[in-house]
Amino acid sequence: MNATEACIALNMLPTVGPVRLRKLLEVFKEPQQILAAKRTELRKVEGFGSEVADQISTWEATVDLTAELERVRDFGATVITQESPSYPRSLREIHAPPIVLYVWGKLQERDHHAIGVIGARRTTHYGTESAKKLSYQLAYAGLTVVSGLARGIDTAAHQGALAAKGRTIAVIGAGLVKLYPPENAALAEKIRSGNGAIVSEFSMEIEPDRQTFPMRNRIISGWSHGILVVEAGLNSGALITAAQALEQGRSVYAVPGHINAPGAIGSNRLIQQGAKLVMDASDILDDLQILLPETKPSPEAIARPLPPLSADERRVYDAIDATETSIDDVIAKSELPSGAVSSTLLQLELKRLVKQLPGKYFVKLG
């Protein structure tokens, strides 16, 4: 048994959670050693009574590890632990980071830089379109959009990120085999087929219930640099996620809604309480320039690598000098129509590659 398999088994025990596992690892060092420990050794750990010690020492009576590993393999998923490079760095920092993450799809290095987009399940046309637009812009700019695959705002957020050909992660409140809601199966397939991943901390066959969704929400907020609440009523679960984000030291953003709309009371109240009002993705991107850690470039890589650019984006980007360049000069150098240059400059701004200055001048961002 390797460390990942041991973590899967520990994760399947009802009495062992992330906080207890951390205490156990302080004593036994390796997850395999926890499962091999005797009942008397386990009871010596501070805060561990006979019930927990008995369940761990007889774990094979509760957990069918072989069957679970077969389910993971047959489904085409993988399981990562906190020791994995692809485990989200920011998620390791929260009070109770998941013991394991079941991943259907692939995680990438860029997924460490994420923004959560959440909101009501019952939403308005305004809320849906706002979620799609903002998620499109955020994904186009290079951030990974994290949401919960639920009906309403979550679905719109994933769709917006996919439309931008960006990255999106769906964190679900059930096992991968019990994907919920079932009508989003096609959306989940599209996400995992190359644009992101479906992620769960629950073993493969766990059904969704009232407890799994709040647990899921802490992962969405913990994974992200900040949470954007698009539309939420007073009793929306999105407000719980926003509260968790604040506890985790994350930023909270909110889209303003109609003052008489019941579905916007919660999100409007967040703005009253200090959440940053968002009308455009640039409101978040400008904020994250302060929040994201700056890294000193190595001698081998003074300039950051450019993201994939279309032919027009490359021509416009190359037409901008090292100093301020007027839009007229960009048009002349790129030899593209003015309309194409204007729309391409907007795309480059969203990717944080150029910045517009007063007077229609543009500069490259380092």
What does this structure look like?
There is one protein chain. The chain has a 9-stranded mixed β-sheet with strand order 1-2-6-5-4-3-7-8-9, with helices on both faces. A 3-stranded antiparallel β-sheet has the order 10-12-11. It folds into 3 domains: 63 residues, 5' to 3' exonuclease, C-terminal subdomain (DNA polymerase, domain 1), CATH 1.10.150; 190 residues, 3-Layer(aba) Sandwich (Rossmann fold); 54 residues, Winged helix-like DNA-binding domain superfamily/Winged helix DNA-binding domain (Arc Repressor Mutant, subunit A), CATH 1.10.10.10. It is α/β, with parallel strands linked by helices and 366 residues long. Helix 13 links the parallel strand 8 and strand 9. The radius of gyration is 23 Å and the shape is elongated. Helix 9 packs parallel to helix 10, helix 11 crosses helix 12 and helix 15 packs across helix 17.
Which short descriptors sum up this protein?
3 domains; Rossmann fold; 3-stranded antiparallel sheet; Arc Repressor Mutant, subunit A; 12 strands
Total of helices: 17
Please tell me how large the radius of gyration is: 23 Å
CATH fold annotation of the largest domain:
Rossmann fold
Strand tally: 12
**Helical amount among residues, as a percent range?**
40-55%
Give a short account of the largest sheet: 9 strands, mixed
Describe the strand arrangement of the main beta sheet, using strand numbers: 1-2-6-5-4-3-7-8-9
Overall structural class, as computed from helix and strand content, comes to: alpha/beta
Could you say how many structural domains there are in total? 3
Give the overall shape, derived from the CA principal axes. elongated
CATH class designation of the largest domain: Alpha Beta
Distance between the termini: 47 Å
State which percent range the strand residues make up. Answer: 5-15%
Helices and strands, in order, run as: HHHHHHEHEEHEHEHEHEHEHEHHEHHEE
Mean pLDDT: 88
CATH architecture of the largest domain: 3-Layer(aba) Sandwich
Low-confidence spans: pLDDT under 50, at least 5 residues? 292-304
Assembly state of the chains shown:
single chain
